Amino acid sequence: MGIIKQPRPVLLLIAAFSSSEEILQAGKQHMIQDFGPIWQESPTFRFDEFTLYYEKEMGKILFKRFWAFETLINPGTLSTIKRRTNQREIEIAEKFKTGGSVPRPLNLDPGYIDLGKLILASTKDHSHRIYLNDGIFAETTLIYTKKHWQTLAWTYPDYQSNEYHQFFDKCRNYLCQKYQTPSEMERNNGF
């Protein structure tokens, strides 16, 4: 019988996209209120270059950023975090009513990075997703192996980009610093 252990804390990562810088900033302030200081903010990426899926509800030109938070979290709290970000999306939509042309002005997608993977939360089920609780699922979006991020069959096109991976490398390095013994841990776990 295996011994049950508490998981290591992980790095909270929130992907945010919108057609408006003002709305991204409002979302950022809400996330800081909810989850504490941001350790690192990614560069701004053009999200609409990867998909047209959100065009009808969010607009044609979409900008995306990632926020990585200073305080590590228990990975078991991901469903609670996803429910909170969903609530914040509703609040921001109410505050920034756009006359119906953009019914969803902000998308907030939480996830986390540990040494071996990047996990994203979702409200949608699929064959590769695992149910957490309270209507929230999770998927492994990327795995870290042989010193680089590896995509999977279901990895979103934007998460396959080298620019994202460069930011995720910084996040993973920060996590290693927080753990304080990365080289020993990596040798033992094959990362």
Brief write-up:
With 191 residues, the protein is an alpha+beta fold. The protein is 33% helix and 27% strand. It is globular, with a radius of gyration of 17 Å.
Write the layout of secondary structure elements.
Elements: E1 11-18, H1 21-35, E2 38-41, E3 45-46, H2 55-58, E4 63-69, H3 78-95, E5 107-113, E6 117-122, E7 130-133, E8 136-145, E9 148-151, H4 162-179, H5 182-189
Helix pairs in contact: 1-3
Structural notes for this entry:
With 191 residues, this protein is an alpha+beta fold. The protein has helices at residues 21-35, 55-58, 78-95, 162-179, 182-189, and strands at 11-18, 38-41, 45-46, 63-69, 107-113, 117-122, 130-133, 136-145, 148-151. Strands 1, 2, 3, 4, 5, 6, 7, 8 and 9 form a nine-stranded antiparallel β-sheet that branches. α1 (21-35) crosses α3. It is globular and about 55 Å long. The two termini are 26 Å apart. 30% of the residues are buried. Residues 182-191 have low confidence and may be disordered.
Features:
alpha+beta; 33% helix; disordered C terminus
The count of helical stretches stands at: 5
* Low-confidence segments: 182-191
Total beta strands: 9
Element order: H for helix, E for strand = EHEEHEHEEEEEHH
Q: Give the structural class.
A: alpha+beta
Termini Cα gap? 26 Å
Level of helix content? Answer: 25-40%
Mean pLDDT score, rounded?
90
Shape label? globular
**Rg computed from alpha carbons, rounded to a whole number of angstroms:** 17 Å
Q: Bin the strand percentage.
A: 25-35%
Largest sheet: 9 strands, antiparallel
